[in-house]
Write a structure and sequence with these properties.
Length: 618
């Protein structure tokens, strides 16, 4: 780059800077003159005639002038509405009661009529003043709608329209429509006649929505673990989530369709048909002993595109309602994906098997404890062909226990482990027992167990449903409250969790009874884990979780015990197994590929052992 080019760029930069400074100075002078003229006009004219808008658009205590030392806004009319007090206006249908405040033309409180909080009080998704909804735009200075008292321009059974007029003409309008039988609220933010007030270079507005969610459920730990914040990009399979009992925040650089403040069973969702350009979201969980009994504070600061015109409309929608799968799915916006039903495989099974079966039984039966029992029986019957081999192999191995003990006595040394294993496998082969045949089918049932682990705590149908000694199947049951919090265990004792752990121990005792005594420390450790550690761990885990989940695991273990006993009693015949074993004595046993690989590994191990012994002798 030569000298003349550098000088040229410097001169261009100076010209642009000077022109920008000159324009800004002129703009400030113009706005100041306009403000003075507006103030004079308002002071000399009757208040209601000066507005050229509908009746009751100026606060009754507005005198027409604002002391200069108290003025915050250049527009004197805005200053008057900034100082005015708000009033509460209500919009409701058969499902939702929405209180709005004219201060900011925003939701003030939301009550869900068909639900109650734990203890029987009203269920408020957020309490009086527990939310803030504001739209900010630059109009000579930054205007934030939550700072001004709007006029109520129109009200019907399903609609409220708020307006904020400007001195120079034009107004901001906030309208809300709540149809009958719906949790969805349509919101319309309109800037009418403000093309000369909002500069043409303004290309976006900020949309803020902040909510403090109160505690609504019995157990803080369970409620917080299933509460979170979600946001969704159009075209994706599922939303992104943050939270789950942990405070978190996220900056979003891409366009997004909606975001949700999700409590365990209820949500406040904001949707933009035109999509938000970008934004920031955060969730802050409050401690269990919060004096206001609040669960979390959620906030979203979104940016929406704006294009200057005589009338600019920004459409939004709010969902204030339950996390009910069918209700959320009906919007066809992936709302139902906020319900934590598991990953691809588990989620698919839950959506297309568990939920339809649950809904089917719910049509005819009102007792949810009985519904869970029927579901458990159906699932056990469906997977029985898969688990039969496992139960059958376990029963047959118990018949062969004396023979296995003979093999253990024949090969007591650790270095003979491969020989002992090969002899045991030959025994199983001659008796027609497949020791590994039941493992894979049993593993295939794990997704079902995990699906239930995800389904029950997230199922709003179980919320506040009593069964036996339990007053709420969606929360933990308690037969003993300690009054003090014990680490890991909590401050209570769940009877369902305790019974589940005892039955799990009995089932483990039944299955491990087939195992012979062994000097192998690994086998002893596995037996200890199965018999003792697993039941104890499951008790501590389930003590604070949904009673429905502990109840399901209890039923599942009881049915497994019954199935094992039935198979052993009626389907496994010890005399036939022993007769088959006796017939095969002295005859060559066909070897499977697995046995061939096992023998090859044994030979390699023995060869390595001999080589090590030779080196030691040298």
């Amino acid at each position: 780059m030569d000298k003349n080019t550098v000088i040229g760029f410097v001169l261009i930069a100076l010209i642009l800077f000077g022109f920008t400074f000159f324009e800004s100075s002129q703009r400030r002078k113009y706005m100041e003159q306009q403000r003075i003229q507006d103030s004079i006009a308002l002071a000399n004219a009757p208040v209601r005639d000066s507005l050229a808008v509908e009746e009751n658009t100026v606060p009754e205590d507005y005198s027409g002038t604002v002391p200069a030392q108290q003025a915050v806004y250049k527009d004197s009319l805005l200053q008057a509405f900034h100082s005015a007090e708000g009033e509460i206006v209500t919009l409701e249908n058969d499902l939702v009661k929405l209180d709005f405040t004219t201060k900011g033309a925003q939701p003030y409180a939301v009550q869900l009529k068909k639900y109650s909080s734990y203890g029987g009080g009203e269920l408020n998704l957020f309490k009086d003043g527990g939310a803030e909804y504001a739209v900010s735009v630059y109009a000579g200075q930054y205007i934030r709608t939550s700072d001004f008292n709007f006029n109520v321009a129109e009200t019907t059974d399903s609609t409220i329209v708020f307006r904020l007029p400007f001195s120079g003409g034009g107004y901001i309008e906030q309208s809300y429509i709540l149809p009958a039988g719906s949790y969805n609220v349509r919101n319309r933010v309109a800037f009418v006649g403000m093309q000369d007030i909002i500069p043409r270079n303004v290309g976006s507005v900020d949309v803020d929505f902040n909510v403090t969610v109160p505690r609504l459920e019995k157990g803080y730990k369970n409620e917080s673990q299933y509460s979170k914040l979600d946001y969704y990009f159009l075209g994706e399979k599922k939303p992104v989530e943050i939270g789950r009992g942990r405070s978190s925040s996220k900056s979003i650089g891409n366009r997004l369709s909606w975001f949700a403040f999700q409590q365990q069973f209820f949500s406040a969702i904001m949707y933009s048909p035109q999509e938000f350009a970008n934004g920031e979201v955060s969730v802050q969980f409050l401690p269990e002993n919060d004096p206001s009994h609040n669960l979390m504070t959620c906030s979203a600061r979104m940016r929406s595109d704006f294009r200057s015109a005589p009338e600019v409309v920004l459409p939004f929608e709010f969902y204030f309602g339950p996390n009910h799968f069918s209700t959320l799915k009906s919007f066809d916006r992936k709302y139902e994906k906020i319900i934590p039903l598991g990953g691809s495989l588990v989620g698919w099974f839950t959506r297309y098997a568990i939920i339809p079966m649950f809904n089917f039984f719910s049509r005819f039966i009102s007792n949810f404890g009985l519904i869970i029992l029927l579901m458990t029986l159906v699932i056990k019957l469906v997977v029985f062909p898969l688990t039969y081999k496992s139960y059958s192999s376990s029963a047959k191995m118990q018949v062969l226990k004396p023979e296995i003990e003979k093999i253990n006595a024949k090969y007591p040394k650790q270095e003979d482990a491969m020989k002992k294993q090969q002899a045991t496998m030959d025994l199983y082969k001659r008796a027609g027992v497949n020791a590994m045949g039941g493992c894979l089918p049993t593993l295939l049932t794990f997704p079902i167990l995990w699906a239930m682990f995800r389904f029950f705590p997230a199922s709003i149908e179980l919320r506040q449903q009593p069964f036996l000694w339990c007053d709420d199947l969606s929360a933990y049951d308690s037969i003993l409250d300690y009054g003090v919090k014990i680490p890991i265990l909590g401050d209570h004792l769940s009877l369902f969790a305790l019974l589940m752990a005892v039955v799990m121990w009995l089932y483990s005792k039944m299955t491990t009874a087939n195992q012979t005594a062994s000097n192998d420390p690994t086998a002893s450790s596995m037996k200890f884990m199965t018999l003792w550690m697993m039941p104890i761990m499951m008790f501590f885990i389930c003590n604070n979780l949904s009673a429905a989940l502990s109840y399901y695991y209890l039923l599942s273990q009881l049915i497994a015990i019954i199935q094992t006993w039935v198979i052993k009693k009626f389907f496994v015949h010890p005399d036939k197994i022993l007769a088959k074993l006796k017939e095969s004595e002295g005859k060559p046993v066909p070897k499977s590929k697995w046995q061939q690989r096992l023998e090859m590994a044994q030979k390699m191990q023995e060869q390595q052992l001999r080589e090590q012994q030779k080196k030691q002798r040298r």
